[in-house]
Every structure is written in C-alpha cells, then in structure tokens.
C-alpha cells in the first residue's frame, strides 16, 4: 500500500491560470498553478477570499500536474467600465487624473472610466493534478475529496467563466508511492475538444512536481495578506514515457 494521493481532472473548452494576472492584463500559464488549484479546492470547501484556511491548504498539500493535452493560448479583447482602483489606492475616472475617494466621485457625478483589459485563455487543454499531504494537516486529502463530491460553491478552472466539462474528482487512492509516482503511472485520459476531437498523444508527456530542491521557481504559493501577494515555491520538471501511461495508444 502506498501513500494517499488525490487525483483531479482539469478539462474544459476554456481554462485560465494566471501568474501575473493583476490589474489590466490577465495572463495564463500553460498549465494549472498551485494557487489556482488551491482556490478551486477552497471554493469547494466554502472558504472565502482571505480565509486563513486557504493558506493551510497550500502548506498542507504537495502539488503536481501532468499535461494530458496542452491546448493553445489565445487572447481575448475585453473592456471594463467602472470607477477603477489603482495600485496606489486611488480611483480612475473619465476626467483628468485620479480621485482619492470613491464617495467623492459619486457625489460629483463623475463618469466612470473605460480600459482595455486583455484576457488570455487556454483552449481545449486537459491536465491530471496529483496532490499529496505534507503531514501538517492530517486528513486533508479526505476533506478535499468530500468537498469536491458535494462542493459549497461550484468549482471552476481558474476563472468563473471556465466551466469543467468532466467531473474534477478522479479518485483518492493509495495505489502509488506519492505524487511523482502517480504522475508517472496513472493512465492518460482526455475526453476531447469542444468540437469532439480526441487524439492519443504521440510523444512523452510533461509533468511538474513540487520539490524543495527543484530547479524551477514558481510564484504561486498562497499567502494570506491584504495585498494578495504570492510566495515562492520550487518544482522540477518530469518527462513521462508515453508507454508508461498510454501503452496501447489511445485509451
């Protein structure tokens, strides 16, 4: 018997996992971020923004992700019209400069400002996420599994408009010796694109697993603070032989 590993399937016509998604420009990473998956679990558990238990999830879970289908990144043209906050704590409006008080703007009947806000999305991508426990919070994986079966709020793939097209919960298993072993051995699966196309991979799969000695640095560790700034963590890349997870081609 191995160690408990929670496996998730993140698949849909649209996903978006921001790494520098602040203010006007909203990007996406080519694969899910740890902070994004922690947010998904927090949503299922009913944790609100700023709840310290979200950071407990981050510190209590080891994160790994395997790319089942890479999809493609495209940028959407969007605009926002409002009294928009700035990094300095002021508010933009259609007049010259900014105002320090939102109430003052409303009293003066100021006209809201409009900005262009590019949004990047992953189209037709699919991922296998593996989560293990660090041991700081006993029973954390079981709690997450139960929440995904009966979520408080519907989970989504990075942004609320990105709806999953298959059940997110795959299984909670002790079949593997840990997160890396699960990524190396769990069968490949992808239900296909929004248009119905489904192809078996033709090359080895890429995966990334959290590791304190890894040579990759990711700024997606959840930290509870007023500025909603993220901490750093380390990871390493894996190349998964196709025969290990998809021995007969398409499954």
Query: What's the number of helices?
Result: 6
- Sequence of secondary-structure elements: EHHEEEEEEHEEHEHEEEH
In total, the number of domains comes to 2
Distance between the termini: 26 Å
CATH fold naming of the largest domain: Alpha-Beta Plaits
Describe what you observe in this structure.
This protein is of the alpha+beta class. The chain has two domains: 5-73 and 124-195 and 202-245, 2-Layer Sandwich (Alpha-Beta Plaits), CATH 3.30.70; 79-115, no CATH class. It is built from six helices and 13 strands. It has helices at residues 34-45, 52-60, 102-107, 140-149, 179-185, 242-245, and strands at 5-15, 61-69, 72-76, 79-82, 84-85, 91-92, 98-99, 113-116, 119-133, 169-173, 205-210, 216-221, 231-240. The strands form three sheets. Strands 1, 2, 3, 9, 10, 11, 12 and 13 form an eight-stranded antiparallel beta sheet that branches. A hairpin with a 5-residue loop joins strand 6 and strand 7 (98-99). Helix 1 crosses helix 2 (52-60). The protein starts with a strand and ends in a 6-residue tail after the last helix. The mean pLDDT is 89.
């Amino acid at each position: 018997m191995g160690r408990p590993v929670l496996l998730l399937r993140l698949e849909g016509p649209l996903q978006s996992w921001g790494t520098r998604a602040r203010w006007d420009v909203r990007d996406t990473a080519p694969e899910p971020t740890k902070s994004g998956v922690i947010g998904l679990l927090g949503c299922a558990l009913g944790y609100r923004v700023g709840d310290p238990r979200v950071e407990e999830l981050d510190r209590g879970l080891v994160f790994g992700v395997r790319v089942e289908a890479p999809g493609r990144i495209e940028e959407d043209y969007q605009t926002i019209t409002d009294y928009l906050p700035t990094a300095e704590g002021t508010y933009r409006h259609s007049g010259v400069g900014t105002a320090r008080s939102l109430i003052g703007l409303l009293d003066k009947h100021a006209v809201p400002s409009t900005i262009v806000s590019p949004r990047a999305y992953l189209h037709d991508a699919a991922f296998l996420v593996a989560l293990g426990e660090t041991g700081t919070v006993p029973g954390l994986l079981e709690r997450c599994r139960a929440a995904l079966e009966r979520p408080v709020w519907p989970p989504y793939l990075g942004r609320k408009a990105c709806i999953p097209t298959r059940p997110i919960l795959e299984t909670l298993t002790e079949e593997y010796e840990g997160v890396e072993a699960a990524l190396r051995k769990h069968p490949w699966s992808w239900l296909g694109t929004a248009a119905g196309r489904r192809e078996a991979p033709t090359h080895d799969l890429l995966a990334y697993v959290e590791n304190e000695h890894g040579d990759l640095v990711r700024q997606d560790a959840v930290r509870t603070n007023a500025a909603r700034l993220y901490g750093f963590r380390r990871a390493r890349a894996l190349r998964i032989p196709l025969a290990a997870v998809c021995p007969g081609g398409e499954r």
